[in-house]
Amino acid sequence: MIKDIMLYYTELVEFLGETLGPDYEIVLFDLRNSRKKIIAISNGKISGRNIGDPITDFISEKLETKDYVNSNYRANYRGIVNGNKFIRCSTKYIKDSENNLIGLLCINFNDSRFEKIASDILKLCHPDALVDNVIFEKADPTIFEEPEQIGLTITDLAKKLVEDVINKIDKPIESLNKKEKMSVVSTLNSKDLFELKSSIPLVAKKLNISEATLYRYITNINKEG
Question: Does an H or E element contain 183, and which?
Answer without folding.
Answer: helix 178-190
